[in-house]
Amino acid sequence: MSQIHERLSELQEQLAQGSITRRDFLRYATLLGVSVGAAEALAACAPKPAPTAVPPTKVPPTAVPPTAVPPTAVAPTEPAPTAPPPVAEKQALPGHTLLVDPTKCTGCLNCALACSEKWAAEYFPNETKDWMNLEFSRIRPMRFQLVDVVNVCTDCRLLQWAEGTSKAPCEQVCPQAAISVIPVGSGKAGFSGMGYLDVDRALCTGLDLCGRCLEICEDQFASGISFDPIEKKAQICTRCGGLPVCVDACPEPLALQFYPLMTNGRMFAQTPADQAESLYNKIYDKLGRV
Asked: Count of CB atoms within 10 A of residue 170's CB?
């Protein structure tokens, strides 16, 4: 415990010196086992750096040049430094999904932190400028007894030949038509579009008055619908319009990938409890094999 306290003190000093950002402080503090609320309190009471005293500038006496002017030496010409090549801008990708490798995921919550920060600032910038709430996240790592499960929308689709439509189940049952696919070329770059689902918050009546999207998702498919903690309106993973911030935030290589969707997402849809049981059986070899 004393080592954790020492490490937290070091992080506070680094935050005060500006060597790490507030977001990095919260991330490292939660990795040490500190709750998000306590980490925010520690960040707020980090010691402020003392102002640096600026020594007075000493002006050297001006030297009087001699009358005789020596010949000017020509310095060798150095080649101008070559500018680094520009970094290629990431392109939004349609037709992809989030692929989680449970054997590499550590449950660090970095994906959820990045997601919640992005969407809270988008919809409630004034209310959330000084605090963080993981309920804004569309992707949610969940810790069970022996395995971690990353719960996120799998982009299910109904079957036209069997169910009469190819819409997403939540889209089909929404009485306000608030859930829809935002086509390529529409939506807000970095947030929606590129053929992924999104919720029109102006049309959504929220959990208290409706919640039908949540019912169909949890009863028959998975649990990819959540509700924001302020207005309680539906949230669904939009894949950030083809540029998912959670993938960039994941520190483990290949633990979370943005992978081409090759089949109907309902093939992978499971409630978190069912997914945890399935992972436990596979990882710990509890399938009854001899």
From this structure: 24
Look at residue 148 and give its three-state secondary structure.
strand
Ranges assigned E (strand) in 4-100? 96-100
- Distance between CA atoms of residues 181 and 167, nearest Å: 9
Type of residue numbered 208: D
| Residues 210/176, Cβ–Cβ less than 8 Å | yes
Q: What is the pLDDT of residue 41?
A: 74
**288, amino acid identity:** G
Query: Stretch 69-84: mean pLDDT, rounded?
Result: 66
Segment holding 218, helix H or strand E: helix 212-220
Strands (E), the chain: 96-100, 140-143, 148-151, 179-182, 196-199, 226-227, 234-235, 256-260
The residue to which tokens 């939506």 are assigned? 187
Q: Write out the two tokens for 159.
A: 């079957």
- Per the rule left: phi > 0, alpha: psi between -120 and 50, beta: everything else, 270 is beta
**Distance from C-alpha of 116 to C-alpha of 286, rounded to nearest angstrom:** 35
Spatial CB neighbours of 112, under 8 Å, sequence gap ≥ 6: 134, 137, 139, 140, 141, 246
234 has a pLDDT exceeding 60: yes
The structure's pTM equals: 0.67
- Distance separating alpha carbons of residues 119 and 123, to the nearest angstrom: 6
**CA pair distance 110, 139, nearest whole angstrom:** 10
Asked if 173 and 216 count as a contact pair (C-beta separation under 8 A), the reply is yes
- Residues 222 and 235: their CA atoms lie apart, in Å, by 14
8 A C-beta contact, residue 206 and residue 234:
yes
